[in-house]
């Protein structure tokens, strides 16, 4: 069934970092041409059939499992190539929109393949239901749902490289290995062997997926464990804590801790002292 909802936006809603401007579902999307573009960001998820998109001087074929992402005020046109072209879509604005899309690897208008179409459709249906409800504060609720949707794009979109979800799957054995062995020195070669890749490739996977180098991730694990020990056992000396969580020396522990937390281990302990 065709559905189209334009939610009522209050002054408070449009000041949110994300807000929904329209949402809907077409059993069959008709041809659409916008030489002056559209004022908001759009995500159009294809459920069935095949269509085409022209944007930025390029023509794309769009199939089920793919989506069109359109940036504001950019000329575009799209239309069906099959008898039925079913779409569910949302349009949105707010100063966080472009930043969250960029974090998912979406830097321009175009066609994007998705690894979990049902997850994204579930989010879009929730946005549609919220917009249709007419409940008080539905604008705020839609903003929360929109944020969840855009975060899940980071896991579910193919760009020029594998999706974050694929990279996390490849890194999972490494992350588990770190969890089990962070209390002792760990060589980069050990971690690479767990993933079955070279050390250089492992570093690239970490930077691409977790936005830090492997040793940074290991040290973050160690620092978090040290904080737990400081609070749980106030009598432990810092040098003992450093050794228990895998740091080679108390001085290195102190410098890493301060760089990550902005305070020394002793200052952190004082801030969390209960008596």
From TrEMBL:
It comes from the Bacteria. The keyword Transcription applies. Pfam families: AraC_binding, HTH_18. Keywords: DNA-binding, Transcription, Transcription regulation. One of its GO terms (molecular function) is sequence-specific DNA binding. Signal peptide: none annotated. PROSITE patterns: HTH_ARAC_FAMILY_1 (PS00041), HTH_ARAC_FAMILY_2 (PS01124). Residues 172-271 form the HTH araC/xylS-type domain. The keyword Coiled coil does not apply. This is AraC family transcriptional regulator. It comes from Cohnella xylanilytica. The lineage of its organism: Bacteria, Bacillati, Bacillota, Bacilli, Bacillales.
